[in-house]
Design brief:
Length: about 180
């Protein structure tokens, strides 16, 4: 299959699916290699970026998605009047940050950083599809390991976890001089 034909097929698949599609699934459907699918996806992305359109092709990790350009989202929202996304609690955001920056990580690792239990936050993030269980650590008790998902990347509008902003530098704790009465 030539690249132009693959571009059109990918465009059709993304349009019909309405959701993010794994590159490997696209390659299978088109009976081409994943590298060929990636090349076609890159060409399609460049085509959409080169001409002003209301939609664009975005890549989130190993997924592709056809989505509305940010500048036209208010018009779409006005028409569809969507239900507002449920926001994450402060505890869930803190837990998600620990997972994102230190992945893969166990529940105990997260609790060590946060200083509080985080079972509920982890379960909430799992239910929302922002994190996933990626196996077990080979230590006593074999605790679950958690990492972010491609949906996490999509939700925060980044293509790769390396696009996360750097953590701020922390000043070392200063020792206080004892007070002498």
């Amino acid at each position: 299959m030539e690249i132009r034909e693959a571009c059109r097929a990918i465009e059709a698949i993304l349009f019909v699916s309405g959701d993010a599609v794994e590159i490997r699934d696209i390659a299978q459907a088109l009976e081409i290699t994943e590298m060929e699918a990636l090349s076609a996806a890159d060409a399609l992305q460049k085509e959409y970026d080169g001409v002003p359109r209301g939609i664009r092709v975005s890549r989130y990790g190993e997924h592709l998605k056809l989505e509305t350009r940010a500048e036209y989202a208010p018009y779409v929202e006005r028409l569809l009047q969507p239900v507002q996304r449920q926001s994450l609690s402060q505890a869930a955001m803190e837990t998600l940050a620990v997972i994102a920056y230190r992945q893969p990580v166990t529940r105990l690792d997260i609790e060590e950083v946060r200083g509080v239990k985080c079972d509920y936050s982890i379960q909430s993030l799992l239910n929302k599809g922002l994190v996933k269980n990626v196996g077990r650590r080979e230590t006593l008790g074999r605790p679950y390991l958690y990492a972010t998902t491609d949906f996490f990347l999509e939700h925060f509008g980044i293509a790769d976890i390396r696009e996360l902003p750097p953590l701020p530098e922390m000043d070392p704790p200063q020792e206080e001089e004892p007070l002498i009465p």
